[in-house]
Amino acid sequence: MTPEELYSAFLDGRRLTDEERTRLSAWVDSDPSAADRVIKTTLVHEWLAGRMSILHLLEDLSTLKDPDLKEDVSEALSRFALAIESVTSSDAKPAPSNTVRQGLLAGALALAACVLLALFTRQGPGNGDAAVKKPTLRAPQAAVSSREKRPSPAPAPVVEQPAPAAAPVVATLVESLDSGAGSGSPQSGALATAGEKFVLDRGFVQWRTEEGHLLVVEAPASIAWQSASHVQLLRGKVVGKAAAGGAPLVVSTSTAEVVDLGTEFGVAQQEGRTFVAVYEGEIELTAAGGPDAGPIRVPQGFQGAANTQGLDAGGLTALRHEREFVRPDEIGLRRLAADGSIEAEAEVRWFELQRVAGLIAYQGFDESSDASHCTIGCAPRPLERGPRTRWAIDLNSPKAVWSRSIQPAPDEPVTLLFDVSSASRAALAELLDDWGTIGRAGAEVWLSWQMSPAEPDPSESYAGVAMLFGPERIRSEPLFIGRPDGERVPGLHPRDGAAITSLEIPAKGAAQTPNACSGRWVVHIRFDNPSSQVRAWCGVDPAEVAARAPHADISVRDLRFDRFSLGSGLDGAPWRFDDILVASSSEALQQALEIVAREKVATPRAPALGAEEPGS
Amino acid sequence: MHLPGTPPPPAEDFASLWAGSFPRLRAYVFLYVSPITDAEDVVQEIALAAAQDFESYDAASPFLNWVIGIARNRIREHYRRRGRHRHEAFDDSALGKIESAFQAAAALPDLRRDALEQCMALLNKRARQLVEFRYLHNLSPAEIAPRLGLSLQSVYTRLSQVRAQLRECAERRLRLAGRGDS
């Protein structure tokens, strides 16, 4: 039991052990919010005790305006009074047995229950919030024993409630982001009733149901509320986060039904297919029909799907990543970002980057985690680096909150390892060849990175990115991109014996760096056997590469890779590298770069160049 | 304390003062006394004692504080009758913090009751049935369990969930109404 449940049990008369008392006390002592929660729980307990009292029912009667309801309640209370009278008058006669006495009181209380149910029903959801009663105040109750007022009766019969006059409120809209303005747009505080349809054309909204479940809706989407624990997803994407206890949250689609088993999960309904991703706990997925309809249980960290023919034959697979759906915590971050938090905005962009379809890998350079954060599609520990490696300012924005850049020491390159496991993005995009490296014949990739010298570098020492594969002792380096050793201009240097191909960059004026391409590189590779085609651009807006002739276009034998080597030669200046991307299409690359480039500035996180400390 | 030379508070004020403080006072008693029947007995005793001693009330100070002073004595008396010498759920340090939180909450307007009324109407059928068994019929969790086909532990847990649900719902409505926390 949680401390809160333990305290609640105490209110219900449970005797606590010394150990439980000590635990509760420690909770109040250590958790600053605990005392407040104790008070509020007690206030609810007190309110319920008062709300369900016979006196309160009588007060309710005096405030009723509905003549039909008043008549119903009056009649019930008349019968209640007769029952009470018969118990009272029995005092003058031989005392009835406790059973008879309790039975009479139980009958009276059962009638009171009828009254109460009538009040709930008439004043409840059907009449909406406008039916709020005034708070009631009571004079001191007569000093009679509460045991006489509140006997423990036999069980009251369960009274069926009459149908409500209108559909009940099932959910409240608690957040609306980027969903437009004006009277037609969804507003926080809006209520949804059972049977109501909700269409979202743009942005995100978050609902909280009366069962306490959270539901994030991502546009474009439409849903229909069935109850406070059941929503029908007609199209689009939702994420449900189920409240503990109570009725389970159910999301149904045209092809499946998803029942939470204490969890957070995403459901997408697109093109006749239902896709489910489970982030916490477990869900039960049942297809609407077909020979293999399930149900099956989908545990945390897995995803599954169903279509009109039943559950997907592929079965369950591991989640590709944690941010396929916009989840409740991201809604909170988006709110903070909208309110001006740069850190929250950066976190939201990070989530957006993860969900770019076709993004195979991204590497920023977060110093605090040794680049283990700000990494997508790379190995868990993505960097192999020497002791003299430095962290430098972000090349995208000098005051970025996202990450920094990395500055390998001269002739001490840094290796960036990509994830080429069977569950990797590269594998799922079918980029891996028979050796498990990126380079399947027929596949294509788009690469991009930024590089820049730490100081003017007129040398002929190498600086750039080498593509590697194979075991460390016999590693192969089929292609180097940058400024090859002994060259004055940037180019592509295949290691298959072919000559270096220099970039032919149209002059743009005096600002053009004469002997090295500083800035963003974009490289397109179409893998084939035995030779792959490589095209490269440097210093060009990635959105324009499709319209521009490549600065170099060559054929490379046996080209494949599973890691990059970033570095520069001993005789030149150190170079910095940043924002390395691998994508399976130019659209994915541009989309990812647009997100990366949206970097806003915040409190400087990177020190001035002269103040940089060596990495360790 | 009623000061010498000042007129005593009119007796007719007692009913309205009591009514205004009654929910908070009863919540205070519920903090210390369980089960409900015992707590309500103590509240009745406090009502009688307060009515009898009303002349000593200084109208310049909050009525709730005055009546809570009486409540403390009556709660101690209740403990003595029950052969208890300490609070069953909390030690003195924790109780001090809870009392402080109570005083802070008591200083705010009692807006929660409106919101609770709305939230109560939104409980599902099973939760309402549980609440009725517990509060209207005054059944103990042990008596409720066989009637709902639940284990005793489940009844405790679900009652806790219903209270939490009502509390959170009320807080949410107050936030949405821009009335903050009460």
What does this structure look like?
- The complex is a heterodimer of chains A (616) and B (182).
- Chain A has 616 residues and is of the alpha+beta class.
- In chain A, the strands form 4 sheets. Chain A has a 15-stranded mixed beta sheet that branches. In chain A, strands 17-16-31-22-27-28-29 form a 7-stranded antiparallel beta sheet, covered by helices on one side.
- The radius of gyration of chain A is 34 Å and the shape is elongated.
- In chain B, helix 1 packs across helix 3, helix 2 (36-52) packs across helix 3 and helix 5 packs across helix 8 (152-176).
- The radius of gyration of chain B is 19 Å and the shape is globular.
- Mean pLDDT of chain B is 80; it is low at 1-6.
- The chains are: A alpha+beta (616), B mainly alpha (182).
- At the A-B interface, helix 1, helix 2, helix 3, helix 6 and helix 7 of A face helix 1, helix 2, helix 4, helix 5 and helix 6 of B.
What's the arrangement of secondary structure elements?
The complex is a heterodimer of chains A (616) and B (182).
Chain A: H1 3-11, H2 18-30, H3 34-51, H4 54-63, H5 67-89, H6 98-123, H7 146-149, E1 169-177, E2 191-193, E3 197-200, E4 204-209, E5 214-227, E6 230-241, E7 250-252, E8 256-260, E9 264-270, E10 273-280, E11 282-287, E12 296-299, E13 302-307, E14 310-311, E15 317-318, H8 328-338, H9 342-354, E16 359-363, E17 375-376, E18 378-384, E19 390-392, E20 405-407, E21 414-418, H10 425-428, E22 444-453, E23 463-469, E24 476-483, E25 491-494, E26 501-502, E27 519-526, E28 531-538, E29 552-557, E30 563-568, E31 575-583, H11 586-597
Parallel strand pairs in A: 6-7
Antiparallel strand pairs in A: 1-2, 1-4, 3-5, 4-5, 5-6, 6-9, 7-8, 8-11, 9-10, 10-13, 11-12, 13-14, 13-15, 16-17, 16-31, 18-21, 19-20, 21-30, 22-27, 22-31, 23-24, 23-30, 24-25, 25-26, 27-28, 28-29
Helix pairs in contact in A: 1-2, 1-3, 5-6, 8-9, 9-11
Chain B: H1 12-32, H2 36-52, H3 63-81, H4 92-106, H5 112-120, H6 125-136, H7 141-148, H8 152-176
Helix pairs in contact in B: 1-2, 1-3, 2-3, 5-8, 7-8
